[in-house]
């Protein structure tokens, strides 16, 4: 409370001594509550929870008013009787913070009561220049400032209620529009002005009680901004939130942009709540009727809230039923799909078994064919090996003959030219035979490759065999030609 006006604090502490109009203007609130309860029992449209909630709110207001009426009676008695003892000696000294909270709570009760009563007489449509409404905002501002921590900055100490009110935007996403509108207002520059504009907009939206309830429920976050003994952190804050619900019956049309909210001085005007008791005795019946109407509007507002809640729950129930039906349909479709997949799996298993049997049969046939081809290849290779051995023997024999011929050529110098020609012919024949041998080797390699291909291609085995037979015939012809050539050479020699 570093930056509060000391005059304001004194005025708040002297409220029990100055409220002389409470005893005369307020009848027995318990009797009024009983009459309201009797009227509500006859009306079958009200439900049990609404009546119990209204009864608790009425008892809270009645207990507060009776408490301060008793205080006023004690103050009047003390004025007419001599002071026989020192109050510091007769009673225990109270904590100043507790007294401040009690005074602020009492002023909040009185301001809300006067605001509701005056709004009923004016048709419940208020503007920003209405004095009871202005005093209500002043009292609410003092309640929010109570126990507020001071933040030190480069300029100096700053103490504003805008910081805790900004938390409501995170706790209630629906209040984001109000906070955004307040920040975008060009005429407001201070945090206090933004807080006042936010309270004006929340009252017009009829959500100020809901927003403050969400804020007070998060005392772990409020501890960053308030001292432990602050009004918002104690039970008085919860009582104030309960009283703010009654303001939902008020229709307010407040022009926030045209007002200077930054420089307004928040001083509580107690003259509005202090009246002559003799002038208020004639309005006892009007006060009863006003209290009954206030309670009626309060209960109507509660009923509206409950109706909205029931509507929302019904909508959620409908959406859940639709979602459940969709899930059932999806489950049915999934079950059908699973059955179809099982049938398809059985069919695939049967097809797999058939394919496996067919592949085994083909494998057996292919194995038999490959064995037959292998046997044919072995026989062919054996014949080719024999042929190669014969040709090799012939080659050795020819080589021996050539050596003998060379010896004879050395002996027969006179027949050198003829021998050279014969040698050239022999060399030519030898080269041809070597080429034939190379060709035979290449043919052998081709036969090997063909045999490997025959393992995979059974149908080409016949053609390969025929080709090999033709090659054999050609080789035989060549062998016959070679024998004839050898005979000619022998004859020439």
From TrEMBL:
Residues covered by the RUN domain: 127-259
GO biological process, one term: protein transport
Keywords: Coiled coil
Composition skew (Polar residues), residue ranges: 75-84
Keyword Coiled coil annotated: yes
Keyword set includes Transmembrane: no
Coiled-coil annotated residue ranges, if any: 303-387, 423-492
Superkingdom in the source lineage: Eukaryota
Any single Gene Ontology cellular-component annotation: cytoplasm
Basic and acidic residues bias locations: 1-19
Ranges of Acidic residues composition bias in the record: 20-34
InterPro entries for the chain: RUFY1-3 (IPR047335), Run_dom (IPR004012), Run_dom_sf (IPR037213)
Region of interest called Disordered, as start-end residue ranges on this chain: 1-46, 71-94
Any one Pfam family match given in the protein's UniProt record, by short name: RUN
Cross-referenced Gene3D superfamilies: 1.20.5.170, 1.20.58.900
Protein's name in the database: RUN and FYVE domain-containing protein 1-like isoform X2
Provenance organism: Carassius auratus (Goldfish)
